[in-house]
Amino acid sequence: MAQKAERYLLSRFAWLGCLALTAIAITSLTSGHFMIAAASLLGAAVIWTSPALPRRLPQRPWDMLNGLLTVALTLLVTASIWLDTEALRGWLFVVPLLVLGLLPPRRSVLLVVLFLAIIMPTLGSLYGDPTRHQIISPLLLTAGLALIFFFLREYKARQLAPLRRTDELTQAASREYLSADLHKEIQRSEREGTDMSIIMLGLDAHLSEPGQDADLHALLPRIGRFLHSQLRDFDSYYRVADLQFLIILPGVPTRGASTRAEQLRKGLMTLMSSHGLTLSVSAGVAGLNIGDDAHSLQQSAASALQSAQKKGGDRIQSYSTWSHITSEQATTGDPLR
Question: Which of 98, 110, 159, 238 is paired with 153 by a 20 to 30 Å CA distance?
Answer without folding.
Answer: 238
